[in-house]
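User: I'm new to structure prediction. If I give you an amino acid sequence, what do you actually give back? Let's try with this one:
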Amino acid sequence: MRRIALGVAGGLAAVAALRALRGAPGAQRLERTNFRGHTVSLAGGPALAVAASATAALGAASAPAAAAALCAGLGAGGVGFYDDVVGSRPEQKSAKGFRGHLGALREGRITSGLVKIAGMGAAGLLASALLDSDGRGGAGSAGGASGRRQRPGRDGRGGSGATLVGRGGAGAGSAVAGRRGGSVAGSGTRGRRRPGSAAGRVGDVLLGAGVIAGTANLVNLLDLRPGRALKAGLIIGAPLLPGAAGGLVAGPAGAAGALLREDLGEQIMLGDAGANALGALLGVALAARTGPVGRAALLAGIAGLTAASEKVSFTKVIEATPGLRELDALGRRSG
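Assistant: Good question. You get back a string of structure tokens that encode the predicted 3D arrangement of the chain. For your 335 residues, that looks like this:
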């Protein structure tokens, strides 16, 4: 029920933010021409970034996880918005893709895209470090998404019949998990354990940062047609909703769903601000529910898709693949 409320809150916040941005002085400066020559507003990006980040923080199980969501969502959204605005200038348009931005740097030019890449990396690193500082990884405890501690019963035992540490018994692990978000089954961390060494923890943080920043970039790479990035975000987020990290996803999913109609109708576009923010928040949820092995596997997949995007057009692949083609076009204006 709480996650449904978060989804509704995310949707309402996104609609309210979009309305405010459209009515703000200078809103016409956010107008752009899309791939079909239609005039659309970039206001959808910051509206999504703010609404999704705020409601992800509300759904987090702990203060560090909430801070991680705000850092990732607003950080990625902020540098994405900078690229949306500054990157449209003529002198910025020559550098395309990661290689293009690095090539410009070798020539002594700092592009808006390079600022965005560095900013997303920094936001991802800080968000991952915040998750690491939280024993639960932001994913909640056995008591549910809220991460509440189990209340002791009258005899000093856990309210659910689990005994406390020092009394022995098979139920001790459950009580500890409720207090510390440990790695026992049902604790909400899916077997995640803190690495024992400082080097191991640093490695885990770096992997988490890669997942967060990489997911932000990947969702942005899909934002080439109306509704595509929002659909991808909803598809990625849907399996996470029932799990321990679902509280981090519910609000952003609601915000994405609320803006989908306007995106498909070519009234707004997400731009880098919206796509990066949505992807970064999904990355936080993915990092919060996985340990080093899971993060490494996710990062390998993200890196592979990102590398492929330099050689292969995702749009051509989608249009040539039955099922994906129809899903991609669903709800979109024709002509």
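You can read the tokens as a compact description of the fold. Here is one thing that stands out. The longest strand covers residues 31-33.
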